[in-house]
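# nightly structure sweep
# worker-07 picked up a monomer target from the shared queue
# config: single-sequence mode, recycle default, output format = structure tokens
# input follows
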Amino acid sequence: MDDSYCATPAPAPVPADAGPPYAACVLCQKPTEFPESTKGSTLCPVCAWQEAGRTACSG
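# output follows
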């Protein structure tokens, strides 16, 4: 059995000094992969994954 099938890959780190200024996550304030001009709630990859799990299990 291939164990890599179920493995969750780690999110890629967001470079601190590359590209445009990134929007802060609305939950943990870490930089996201979205530019500051993005409208709506922005979430970092970790918080987005957790929020998806919460909404999927909320029925």
